[in-house]
Amino acid sequence: MLPLIYIPGILMYTISLKLKQIFKSFISVLILVSFLSCVGSKPNNDSINQNIEHLIERGKGYWEQRTDTDAMFKAANFLTLAYNKRVNDFELAILIGELKFTLGYFEEINLEKAESIFFEGAQICSNAVLQHPDFSNLFENTKGDGKLKLLTSINNAPPSVISGLYWWAINLAHYLKNRPVLERLNQRELMEVIMNRVLAIEPSFHFSGPYRFFGLLYTRIPGLDLSQSETYFNQSLNSNPEYLGNSVQMAEFYHQKAGNREQFNKILNNVINTNLNNYPEIIADNLFFQKKARILLDNESSLFE
After folding, report:
1. Where along the chain do its domains lie?
2. Tens of pLDDT along the chain (305 residues)?
3. Can you list the pairs that 63-67 forms with residues at least 24 positions away whose Cβ atoms lie under 8 Å?
4. pTM, rounded to two decimals
């Protein structure tokens, strides 16, 4: 038998050994829990991303069927749900910007509601541009502050944000087209800088969209030479006659403003009688513009009072 004096040491050793074993077991449990948490969280993240991708896929599917009103609103619903979960997705934001324009211009007959839709589209696209890494880096390195810094950055914007700039300006212009004159004048410089940048990089964007934009702008800003509107619209028509939006908007904005009722009527009737099967790749847009042409002709008398 060991002397009694050694018993406390053995007890302490035994206790220490047990504590080490318990501590090791505790650490093992912690490691296992941590591992399981990591493994468990990954499927959740994957599940969220899969859900967002599913929403986008469904939304794009309905967008391809957008000439059907129900499909259009379903596209808006699915894509908006996806965007709310992934607000930094540039391409998704721009698609929603185009969708907002389509809803506001072709579907909504209430002016205030249409303006609200255009405003939302402009906001979404402007946020997408400003948050795009290529643009935000440029903005941070641009001298000046406030409005000057923003306009200078837009004037030097990279090609990667052109689609965002375009739908930002388009939605903003259509939001402002019936707003008070002072409001339009206050936004003129911003709109011109945005679309001039698009024009400088890709003048053919969206079937000569920049020329179509300036054709509209020159009918809505007091003091500008109205003949310049005709010049811009003719440029869009010469470059992309197959895109009926160039004809319809020239009639809607330039010929109406200039009081050219005969040309207004002739152009829109030509649009209505166009065989859309000649350009199947843009049949959806052209169907919308044929519909718009009919509406404008139905309201011809009131438009030229």
Report:
1. 87-202, 204-305
2. 333 333 344 333 343 444 444 444 444 434 434 444 444 445 477 888 899 999 999 999 999 999 999 999 999 999 999 999 999 999 999 999 999 999 999 999 999 999 999 999 999 999 999 999 999 999 999 999 899 999 999 999 999 999 999 999 999 999 999 999 999 999 999 999 999 999 999 999 999 999 999 999 999 999 999 999 999 999 999 999 999 999 999 999 999 999 999 999 999 999 999 999 999 999 999 999 999 999 999 999 999 98
3. 63/95, 63/99, 64/284, 66/99, 66/102, 66/284, 67/284, 67/287, 67/288
4. 0.85
